[in-house]
Design brief:
Blueprint (H helix, E strand, L loop, with lengths): L1 H44 L6 H9 L7 E4 L6 E5 L6 E4 L2 E9 L4 E6 L5 E3 L30 E2 L8 E2 L2 E2 L6 H14 L2 H4 L2 E2 L1 E4 L11 H8 L3 E4 L1 E2 L3 H7 L27 E6 L8 E5 L5 E5 L5 E3 L3 E4 L4 E4 L9 E3 L1
Antiparallel strand pairs: 1-2, 2-4, 3-4, 4-5, 5-18, 6-17, 7-12, 8-9, 10-18, 11-12, 13-18, 14-15, 15-16, 19-20
Length: about 325
């Protein structure tokens, strides 16, 4: 009888132990599942910090001499590629482009098309506030301002209504219309379009007649800002791309800045910068075949090459490449 009772007790203990173990196992699995679910939800709610610009700076590294990426001494949080042949190549729109600069304050990357797009005049002959009341006072030579009245700002983000006490143009320059309509719609693929963001581009006039400092040139360029998607380089960017110690400002850009400058490509192309040398509204700066910064009419016979400039979203990721021409940076969103 005692043996039967002992066996019964042992059996009951085993049942209790098994039940407790099963309960603990169920609780453990449930807790783990809950934690996993919470972790997945938490990860799903985390927005990845956009770091395109900062990542590129880390990958490329900063140099103080020779070809490479330099910390810009004129603009805070800006890094500029300088020299004869820096590794700043990137694939964009299934084409070869080059990186001009990186801004780590908003993590954007500014790039320029490696090849010339085509030859065009900067502007048409007339139709942009002609007459004494308008900034563009010549019907024959076009207008040097890239943008139109309701898309031009000062450096404090205030809309401009006049320049030199004259009305601003009510239409974009024809080169602007071509790039932001025809080129954007017909020549950019979908993957490229989603990478482009609006940016501020400096379109203030630049003159070689100054104190000889790039700081003054930059301040002049910032007096007028155009906001949009596709632009051209401003002339100060050409100056900053050279590592020639004699290329220090617009006053030296006529004959000093082609040396050690990757932006010099032995072909004429437009900048976005109006010329302030002749006190007119129709002279625009361009890069000559010899690498000189020169000026000419926005219209008439003045047809030159176009190298589109865009700013990439901070959400762009660099997936491969070392920036060399044979292994350019590859991008994805």
């Amino acid at each position: 009888m005692r043996r039967h009772r002992s066996r019964r007790r042992n059996k009951q203990r085993k049942i209790i132990i098994i039940s407790m173990c099963s309960l603990l196992l169920i609780m453990t699995v449930g807790y783990a599942a809950m934690q996993t679910n919470l972790e997945i939800k938490a990860k799903g709610n985390v927005v990845k910090k956009a770091t395109a610009g900062s990542d590129l700076v880390d990958m490329a590294g900063i140099v103080n001499s020779g070809d490479g990426l330099y910390k810009d001494v004129y603009e805070e949080n800006v890094y500029t590629y300088r020299g004869t042949s820096p590794n700043n190549y990137v694939i964009f729109n299934d084409e070869l482009w080059r990186i001009i600069s990186v801004n780590t304050s908003d993590n954007t990357i500014k790039i320029i098309r490696n090849e010339i797009l085509e030859n065009r005049a900067f502007d048409t002959a007339s139709g942009r506030y002609q007459g004494k009341e308008g900034y563009c006072d010549s019907s024959s030579f076009g207008c040097s301002i890239y943008g139109r009245l309701n898309n031009l700002y000062d450096n404090n983000d205030n809309l401009l209504t006049a320049l030199l006490s004259r009305k601003l143009p009510d239409k974009d320059a024809s080169i602007n219309i071509y790039l932001n309509e025809t080129y954007y719609n017909d020549l950019l693929n979908t993957s490229a379009k989603v990478m482009i963001i609006d940016n501020k581009y400096k379109v203030g006039s630049l003159s070689s007649q100054n104190s000889g400092t790039l700081s003054i040139d930059l301040n002049n360029a910032k007096q007028v800002i155009w906001k949009g998607e596709i632009a051209l380089i401003d002339a100060t960017e050409y100056v900053r791309a050279s590592t020639n110690s004699s290329c220090t400002s617009m006053s030296s850009a006529f004959d000093k800045c082609a040396v050690n400058n990757w932006m010099h490509i032995n072909y004429e192309y437009w900048t976005i910068s109006p010329s302030g040398d002749y006190f007119t509204s129709y002279f625009v700066l361009y890069i000559s075949e010899k690498g000189q910064v020169s000026s000419n009419n926005a219209y008439a016979y003045a047809k030159r090459g176009i190298r589109p400039v865009v700013t990439l979203s901070p959400e762009v990721q660099i997936t491969s490449g070392d920036g060399s021409e044979s292994s350019p940076f590859e991008l994805t969103m």
